UniProtKB/TrEMBL annotation:
Annotated organism of origin: Hyalella azteca
Single Gene Ontology BP annotation: arachidonate secretion
Domain (Phospholipase A2-like central): residue spans on this chain: 2-93
GO cellular component: extracellular region
Cofactors: Ca(2+)
Cleaved signal peptide residues: none
Principal subcellular localization: secreted
The protein's name in its UniProt record: Phospholipase A2-like central domain-containing protein
Protein's cellular compartments: Secreted
A molecular function GO annotation: phospholipase A2 activity
Any single Pfam family the record assigns to this protein: Phospholip_A2_2
Length: 134
């Protein structure tokens, strides 16, 4: 694809090593280097990542989404769809308690696109599906 950071793993020798699609690769690199990742089997904030994929803090995923949209190429859109629209990946964040999912979608599996949050109660760490890439 012309990147060293996008997709499973990376082929970069160091953080400044980018492939021919430099802007796209920079988006993927920054996401890969998210400081709040939960690797498969790892736990933090009473959340255990029981998926085979790395789970990032939702802020890192939203920064990744914004970077891909700003990059704007067809390749960036492909990466965005593969990451955000398949329904395979989740993120975690501190939020009001969720009460229900009000909208579902997903290419490979159904993922919640919109949540209904409670209005009372303390914030708590929770896992969320990600909205599709548009």
């Amino acid at each position: 694809m012309g990147t060293k950071w996008c997709g499973t793993g990376n082929a970069a020798e160091n953080p400044s090593d980018l492939g021919p699609l430099k802007n796209l690769d920079a988006c993927c690199r920054d996401h890969d280097l998210c400081p709040d990742d939960l690797e498969p089997g790892q736990s933090r904030h009473n959340i255990t990542n029981d998926t085979p994929f790395t789970m990032s803090h939702c802020d890192c995923n939203e920064a990744f989404r914004a970077c891909l949209k700003a990059e704007g190429s067809g390749a960036a859109k492909e990466v965005g769809i593969a990451f955000f629209s398949t329904g395979l990946f989740q993120c975690y964040r501190l939020a009001p308690p969720t009460h229900a999912c009000t909208k579902w979608a997903g290419m490979l599996t159904q993922a919640c696109q919109e949540y209904k949050f409670g209005t009372s109660g303390e914030l708590r760490w929770q896992v969320f599906d990600m909205a599709a890439f548009e």
